[in-house]
Records
---
Amino acid sequence: MSKDSFGHSLRPGVKSLALVLLGAGIATAGGQALGTLINPSANGQPTTIDAFWNNGFWNDGDSPTPEGPGSQSQNNGQNNSGQNNLAIAPSVSGPNVIAEIVQRVGPAVVRIDSSRTVQASGPPMLQDPFFRQFFGNNQPAPQGDQVERGVGSGFITSTDGEIITNAHVVAGADEVQVTLKDGRSFTGRVMGADSVTDVAVIKIEADNLPTVALSDSDRLQPGEWAIAIGNPLGLDSTVTAGIISATGRSSSEVGVPDKRVDFIQTDAAINPGNSGGPLLNLSGEVIGVNTAIIQGAQGLGFAIPINTVQRISSQLIQNGRVEHAYLGIQMVTLSPQMKETINSDPNRPFEVADDAGVLIAQVVPNSPAAQGGLQPGDVIVAIAGQPVKDGADVQQAVEDSSVGQDLAMTLRREGREQTITVRPGNVPAQ
């Protein structure tokens, strides 16, 4: 439930995954802006820097040159073993079914440009001409305000201008500009953003707008067709197609344990700038919101299931925020191999007797878990009377509970089973 869990240190394969949030959003965790020229401003006005936020997806440099998965739209036909896995045209009523879907849904997909003003750091530029002749233009960047820009995607869900996108596309933005496919542009107001699920809602002042239809993502099956529409790398109204590769990918599997999402995995080519755009089925209904890829992989994109998005967005529209129950523990799913690995470490903080269940590796000080009496070395057996077999079960059970309400947890501690009542709090602000 926190970023650097005890479990990750024992799972190097997971730890090595580098997640790339696809929107060129402002507040992408761990992201870096592209290296760009900084123009000095003599009049004290903000200096503008054009940048995509890419979480390491692009090389630093003067231009956004994609590397590895950045050429995914070209290489998406091969998996990691080199075998061709290109999706062939679906056998449906007409050969142009995808084109028909795009024509119908495309007008409801928007481009989102966001910007924020930040304070530049570094010593002031040398003004003395004598010293400037030695340093030329290779001087530290000037102090002063700079404007950072990002681009992402979104889709309209109500005729009066409610728009779904990713939280990282608009987080920290001073200004949000929404551009429709027909060229009209509106100033957007962020109604709310939830960093835990990476969902945000924007409102524009307009009427009679085109909207999307929403599907039931709980009924998705691997192998179904998937269509992505968005603005990858700033290329507006780009369409790609593939299949649903898997469902229920936990946030820890994907490499973002701080999120509370079971992701949809797809091989439809998606890239930075696709964030917030819709993933569609062959009925033209939204099944998910494109949000991330894994750096260095081909054909591995991830979307937030639309059922999760609906639940979160309704709370954002109503309250402007979302509460997520939080305990404050770091967990490891036990197995005979994991038990042996832990017990063979001479620096282990405790001995593990169980080879199944969910081990509490650490308890965050002053957290609800600490206040409720949970301890490192406890093994969680059940929550609210329901057995749990892994960390994902625990996270889901906590997510389904209520902030401030008692939650019964059955534990094994020093070989004895007992039930402890804890009272979850709200996820701390990040």
---
Amino acid sequence: MFKRNLEIGGLKISPPLFLAPMAGLTHSALRQLILDFGPVGLLSTEMLSASSLPHENSEHSPYLIRTQREKPISYQLLVFKVDQVERAVEKLLSLGADCIDINLGCGAPKVVKKGGGVALSHDPERLKDIVKAIKALCNLPVTVKIRLGPTPDVASFKDRCLFLQDLGIDALYVHARFDKEPFARPPKWEMAAEAKRVLSIPVIVNGGIFNSEDAKKCLDVTGADGLMIGRGAAIRPWIFRDLASKVYQFEVSNFELPDLSVVWMNFFHYLESLFPPERRIGRLKEFTHYFSQNYAFGNRLAMAVQRSKTMEEAKLRAIEFFMKNKNEHQVNKYE
């Protein structure tokens, strides 16, 4: 049986299942939808710019809106310069963050051009100053999320992992793909396993986990201390419940396959109750793009919502789709 509990810098994580930070997805509506099924070891925000974070209003910002039930939660920082750190950390402390994660894995051109994400991961002196500054300002666990690097250079990857450990981080998240590799490519779990072999801090692996069989294979290959779930959580918000039960042997109260239309409508209502009107429809479209993959012809649902100009229009079109497909089961690869 795989280890059921984990501790990161004094923060107890049980089960060792982590929500990955995803732009446009890991906001309060999705986090609450996931918690409706539970359990989750550690939730996450979207990537937050350290430069703009101090100016965000936590009651109105879609990046910071949060309910009391969303704990424990990690806030992921996109940092470019060390002088951005102090005010950003002060803001996170005021928000009640349980953990701070540093983004070293984003490969978006505009981020890399400014020196963030994967660019920061390859700038050791600047990275050292940033980690040192964060740790000096708080006692929260500090984690780092990386990719494997630009090429399949195992020695370089291991050296980078050891460097990060020496900086004093409390855990390492490894997205098992190369810096510029798209999600469509299979994850390189074998290479990610090298991090676990050389490090003494917890190593959590991310990438390509959509069901319990994926999870077990990933743990067998990597020996990871935990798993981080990204797109799989948007496709199947109940995936944490499934993994907790099938992989980590946690008892769950309800293991029935949920009514997909009810799950989508719950997400819709969370958006309406939490977010300002202008912040809803885009997030509904983003979620539906992934959630629609539960259906063999889910592209029809995704396209119907994508064409909608208002929330009400999207709801009516979605209801029409659900009525026509109410007896359809999920696509097998996500079972």
---
Amino acid sequence: MAKILHTADLHLGVKLSGLGKAGDRVRASIKATLASIIDMAIEEKVDAVVIAGDLFDSNQVSSSLIRFALGEIARLGKIPCVILPGTHDCLEEGSVLMSIDHHEKPANVSVFLDPENPVIRLEDKNLTFYGMPNMASRSTKNPVTSVQRLERDGTHILLAHGSYMIPEKTAADDHPFGLDDIDNSGFDYIALGHWHSFFELPTTKTKAAYCGSPEPMAFDQTGAGHVAIVNIGNQVTIEKKVVGRTNWQKVELSSANFKYTMEIEQEIQKHADENKLLRVHITGLATADSSIDIDEIHGLLADSFMHLSIIDEREQVPQELLELNLPPTTILGQFIRQMSDAIDKSEDSEQKELLTESLRTGYALLSGKDVL
């Protein structure tokens, strides 16, 4: 029986462009999450920690960040940590992982640095780890079939950083592999990296899983924020453990439901959380009498979030549609004239308001605008 903690894709030092000062807070959260992962490994009394690629976001990171990462891993003590170069920290010229020997590498750290000998053996634990280091960010080389299991006793674990092949979705140069490659590999477990969401592959013979990134790093990432505790014996069990601190969320608010700044402010306030990065999309048709100040809302609520962005995607309609002077031979031109005549003839204020809004909405729809 062997018990490992499987993590990957921490991306220490990630740039996170577009977040401004919040980027520093997210980078700090990723560092704190690494510390939590080390604490979990110690508490769980695992036999080893495996990092299946992209410990660092690039090969150009600061010496202080390298020292921080190695210092945290050193806290594992006698628990070994095996690291695979990924696509961001690949073994290209100037590789950060090739340089860690210059930073007093802890005795418990092993890195796959030799593609000719992708094997790390831990005799005292009867564990054999395998991993083909990524030599570039893009490659057609299969990270699963490029490594062969040795004929010896003990537990055999492969680390692979690449993409599970999905027809018409997986790029041919994204280090691809298939389900049959995994099932026919002969390994006891395959620890995958590269995808940022937790995903256990639907294999039949060999268990394999993406643990996902311990912290989300984009609004479109779902399923991030975990590591895997893997028990390997007669059966293999994979337990998803939450470690993420930040919460990235997108919210869409239709302007049809809000007329004043205060109303949208109150709705956004419901999501307030100092660990949340919130992106709000305000959609629909901007009504003629709406009074919504996006800058005011952001100024009032920005401090309630780790990051807040409000994107105004409302469709704008000209106030004087008749002045557009559209040809009466067009459907849109006829519609504007007929509705304008109806508005002029109406003597009921409520009906006039309803017709005016119908004119604006009809114009937007006939113009191909997304107002729903």
